Amino acid sequence: MNSSETSKHFKAKVSYSSRTGLLLPVSHMDRMLCRGNFAKGIGATALVYVAAVLEYLIFNIVDRAGSITKHHNRHQISPWHLKLAIRNDFELNKLLGRVTNYQRGDAANNKCLLFQPKKTKDRKSSRRRTVPPPIPTG
């Protein structure tokens, strides 16, 4: 028996992602959820569901960012376009509104507030009482 005859008897391996029709790897979701130690056992349908939800979110964000990129006459999606895509959609903004993108735009405004120069105190303010006076009862 040569190698061509033996290859006819064995079926080629088909990934779980290709069987479900998803682009994201289901096996990767399995590995990440097992590492996260969220539960003792994770069902196969849960892995497919997580992969499908993430694929749907990624598709929506990249689709909106692509249209924003085209609107700005650019050819490459930047982090700023992703931020605009999330901020312009109500549901995505509700889900990812508090996420900070350190590559462009979000963190620059916060640095101005965090690193303001300290004001010098005059001598009278340091002598003042810092504890509020007691509330009179009676």
Description:
This protein has one domain (14-111): Orthogonal Bundle (Histone, subunit A), CATH 1.10.20.10. Helices cover 59% and strands 0% of the residues. It is built from 8 helices and no strands. It has helices at 3-9, 16-20, 26-36, 44-71, 79-88, 90-96, 106-114, 123-127. The longest helix is centred in the middle third of the chain and has 28 residues, at 44-71. The mean pLDDT is 79.
Gist?
The protein has one domain (14-111): Orthogonal Bundle (Histone, subunit A), CATH 1.10.20. It contains eight helices and no strands.
Q: Any key phrases for this structure?
A:
138 residues, mainly alpha, Histone, subunit A, 8 helices, 0% strand
The CATH class is identified as Mainly Alpha
Low-confidence stretches: none
What is the overall shape? extended
End-to-end Cα distance, whole Å, is 105 Å
Gyration radius from CA atoms, angstroms: 28 Å
In round numbers, the mean pLDDT is 79
Our count of helices gives: 8
H/E topology pattern? HHHHHHHH
Portion in strands: under 5%
Q: How many separate domains make up the residues? A: 1
> Could you please say which CATH topology applies here?
Histone, subunit A
What summary fits the major beta sheet?
A: none
Structural class: mainly alpha
Instruction: Kindly state the percentage of residues in helix.
Output: 55-70%
* Number of distinct beta strands: 0
